[in-house]
Structure formats: structure tokens, C-alpha cells
Amino acid sequence: MAKKNGVELAKAYVQIIPSMEGAKGMIEQAVEQALSRMPDIGDNAGSKLGEAFSSAFSKAAAFIGDSIETGMGFDSAVSQIAATMGTTVDEIGELREAAREMGAQTAFSATQSAEALNYMALAGYNAEISMKMLPNVMDLAASGGMELARASDMVTDSQTALGLSIEETEKLVDQMAKTASTTNTSVSQLGDAILTIGGTAKNLSGGTEELNQVLGILADNGIKASEAGTHLRNIYRRERRNRGA
Predict the structure, then answer these.
(1) Residue 163 placed within a domain
(2) Is the pTM of this model over 0.85?
(3) How many CB atoms lie within 10 A of CB 97?
């Protein structure tokens, strides 16, 4: 009976914070678990209930603190997007919701999604293009085991270096993921190689598909990352000089 009364007391007490459902549930669960470990609280009911409440509220406080910190981090990331775009937070509601949605549906948090969107904004992407590219960037980050912001930076820099359209950039992301999974290289190393070769690869007859194929072959032969980019860039430059001669 004492245990039941203790649980009911806990449930009644936390009604003062009905809007904080996560903390409310945590308190109820923690108190119930604490009381279940007490075979007979008997005459020490007050003391033992106090211990149960103390443990429960400590956990709830930590939960609330983490939630507040996470929310502040997300708001800060969204504010940074607005600043980069030269607008206000109220005017980028779609981007804010997109970041929240990705945070709920993927392995990446809403804050990480917002940070990735900011890199796209820095590259000059508008809201519509940023939201379109975000899932592709997430796929690349996941396949390469990379931070989302790093993947976003890599994609936008590669687009600029190679002079690609959004559609071509989407294809590049898929090609990089495929190359990384079928050859002895990684997404990060491919990105370094592509950024090193840069505009020199713009005139490849086979486009980014040929670029990825050649980088994959080089990787299988122990030439990777910026070294592969430098190697390939020198080959193309030498070929152009020979043709000119």
C-alpha cells in the first residue's frame, strides 16, 4: 500500500509541470522503479520516499538541462543561417522546419542539419535548393561516416570547383558514395582529391563519372586524397600541353 501511495503521490506532484512531458514521464518512472526496489518501506516511508524523489528529480533536472541546451544550440544554428542569408529567422521558417524534420527522421540531429544548411547558404544556395540538397548531403555523410557539416562543405566546394549545376551535383554525390564503396578509398579522400584537381577536371569528356572512376583506380593503386588530385591534375595538364604542341 505504501508503494502504491508513493507512486500516486509522485504522479500527482508532477502535474505542476504538465507541459514538460519528457520530464514528467521520467520522474514517474524513476519513482516507481525506486519504490519497486523497496520490499517494505514500513516506518521509514518518509525517508525512503524522499530518497526516491531526490533520485527522480536529479534525473529530471539533467533531462531538462540537456533539452534546454539542445534547443539553444538549434536556435543558434538557425540564427546563423538567417545571418548568412541576410534575413531574419522568421523569414526562413521552411528551413527551420526542414532541419527539425531531418533531425526527427535521420541519424543526424536538428542542430547538425541546421549547420549543414548554413554551409549551403555560405555557398550561395537559396532556401529551396538547400532543402533539396540536404537529403543528398546526409546520404553522403552517412556513407562516408562524416560529420554532416563537413559533408555539406565538401559538396558545395566541389560544385563550385567543378562548375556543376544542382542536378550534376546530385549525381556527383551518388558517384562519390558508389566509388567509396567499391574501391579502396573513402568519401573524405575523394572530396580532397576533387578539390585538389578543381577546375582542371571541368573538361573531362566523361564528366564527374569518369573523374570518380579514375580516382577509384588511383586509390586501388595506393594514390589517394590530395595526392590523387595532384597526380591527376598533372596528367591532364601534360596531355593538354602535348595536344597544343
Answers:
(1) no
(2) no
(3) 12
